[in-house]
Write a structure and sequence with these properties.
- This protein is α/β, with parallel strands linked by helices.
- Strands 1, 2, 3, 4, 5, 6, 7, 11 and 12 form a nine-stranded mixed sheet that branches. The chain has a four-stranded mixed sheet with strand order 13-14-16-15, sandwiched between helices.
- It is globular.
Length: about 425
């Protein structure tokens, strides 16, 4: 496989610990020809070790489209990938995502996204229509595909796990600054589809997304403010719907957000007064979005800078370590995992106990993967709630389950 040059753009604001974890995982990628570009607020840039990062830019405006366009301008790779600061990429993320572009007709690609437990799928392939509504696509879990969608639809890439040809971004103008927080990736997907450019979904290009809190979202994933969702929805409707369809789309969007808020209230994570405030902000945002000017794209040159490949000692596949033991040994094993990580190994730690507890995967600093759960418990959405395993067989199964996303192809093809 030709090692195409890849630029990875990370946009961050006010989350230096998350940014550090994201960059640490990027440093463990198996793809050998990539650079890292960070666009963040000054305090985050000053708090994080940026050794080996190709370029940085201070940006403190609450507009992710503008920040990503800055990242594009600072990038020099033939392919440009995007990942959020509250996400961590599996080691073979760039390898699998860039592999989709071996098909010269592919101009965009996205991968699967796992939720904060590291096991459940948060996103697994969708299309989007002119109202901004998502529709599930049938995607095989181990094979890159180019889904075909109906006219007026687009294959959607999730903002925290997507990659584009530089030429496609340059020709289309990048991200529309009218979308400050929401639907910015979907708008680009719609323009890509209108230009008859193919989009691939690479299930083995996996990132773990924590959904960290921000100005629009609380720590429990409940909405803190829906103003920008309303505003971006209005911009999207104006761009892709006939005027007579605006009102029905607005009502459908409002009802969907209302159902979501009521679900949080039923779960005890919100209160009636908060629901009312959020819905009021949603409608005010929609009215404001109807007045926004869309399509004010920056000029993106073919290349402004020289490619600066990330400079670190590449991992020898023989140095990938798998540690395992009983949960009661976790403190000793975590210390061992941290020591091995610090010395340059890429470490996966498995902590099992004789229960049927569900499994959980997390990325721990200084940079190792830890999976914990019951020997008889569930670690895949297709697993039964309880199944008998010998401990050694269960460990072997879990290593094989993650092999294609975690370990180099010299170990797992």
């Amino acid at each position: 496989m030709t090692l195409t040059t890849v630029s990875v753009v990370v946009v961050s604001h006010g989350r230096p610990e998350d940014l550090l974890k994201c960059l640490t995982a990027l440093r463990q990628q198996t793809h050998a020809n990539f650079e890292i570009v960070v666009v963040a607020d000054a305090s985050s840039l000053s708090a994080v070790d940026l050794q080996g990062v190709a370029a940085t830019q201070v940006f403190d405006v609450a507009n992710i489209s503008q920040a990503r366009n800055i990242g594009i301008a600072l990038s020099a790779g033939e392919l440009i990938a995007f990942i959020d600061d509250d996400a961590v990429a599996e080691p073979r993320w760039l390898e699998h995502l860039s592999g989709a572009f071996l098909d010269q007709k592919v101009g965009a690609a996205g991968g699967f996204v796992l939720g904060r437990n590291g096991i459940s799928l948060q996103w697994a392939g969708q299309s989007i229509d002119a109202t901004g509504t998502d529709h599930t696509l049938a995607i095989e879990a181990d094979k890159t595909a180019v889904p075909q969608v109906a006219p007026g639809f687009a294959v959607r890439t999730q903002g925290t796990n997507m990659m584009f040809r530089r030429e496609v971004l340059r020709r289309l103008g990048g991200f529309d600054p009218a979308f400050a927080f929401y639907l910015e990736d979907s708008d680009l997907n719609m323009r890509i589809a209108a230009d008859e450019i193919q989009t691939a979904i690479a299930p083995l290009a996996v990132v773990h997304h924590a959904f960290a809190p921000n100005a629009n979202r609380r720590a429990d994933r409940g909405p803190a403010d829906l103003h920008e969702i309303g505003a971006s929805s209005a911009v999207f409707h104006c761009k892709y719907l006939r005027e007579r369809d605006w009102a029905p789309a607005r009502e459908a969007m409002f009802n969907a957000q209302r159902r979501r808020l009521l679900g949080f209230m039923v779960d005890g994570r919100s209160e009636p007064r908060r629901v009312e405030q959020c819905l009021d902000g949603l409608l005010r945002g929609y009215d404001e979005g109807m007045l926004r000017q869309s399509g004010n794209f920056p000029e993106l040159s073919e290349r402004n800078t020289e490619f600066q490949p990330f400079s670190s000692d590449r991992h020898d596949p023989a140095e990938d370590c798998v540690l395992h033991g009983h949960w009661r040994e976790r403190h000793r094993l975590r210390r061992q995992a941290a020591e091995l990580t610090t010395s340059g190994h890429r470490v996966s730690l498995f902590l099992l106990h004789q229960t049927s507890f569900f499994h959980r995967m997390r990325y721990r600093m200084p940079g190792y993967w830890e999976q914990s759960g019951g020997v008889y418990g569930k670690s895949d959405r297709a697993d039964p709630l309880w199944a008998y395993w010998r401990t050694a067989d269960r460990l072997r199964r879990e290593v094989e389950r993650i092999g294609a996303v975690r370990f180099p192809s010299e170990h797992f093809g």
